[in-house]
Design goal:
This protein is an all-alpha fold. The protein is built from 6 helices and no strands.
Amino acid sequence: MGKAVIRRMDALSKTIALALKRSLGDSRAGVKTVAVWTGANEKTVKNGFSGTYCPSGAHLISLARHSDEVLGTFLAMAGREDLMVAIKLAAAEDAISDLLDAVRQLNGEDPSGKVS
């Protein structure tokens, strides 16, 4: 492996570790959570939290599935921040829709907007 590839892997390892810590904190509970998400053993997960090793492809996919921080970090490193904006926009639209439904129910309307 060339030195440039090793430097990129080291940067990826450390960046994903920071995302995990932002998402779950730097605790034993966070390590256990990631072990459940990925199926990896706790020693492997601890190495991931420390930035010593980069998660495997399959583990990285599991982490991105469960952690918006990891997903956002991965997309930013891939130069695809636009996709994270689209994901956040869709989540905001869902939250607004849920809020409108709750307000309508409080006002005695059904969620479709008709008065009962």
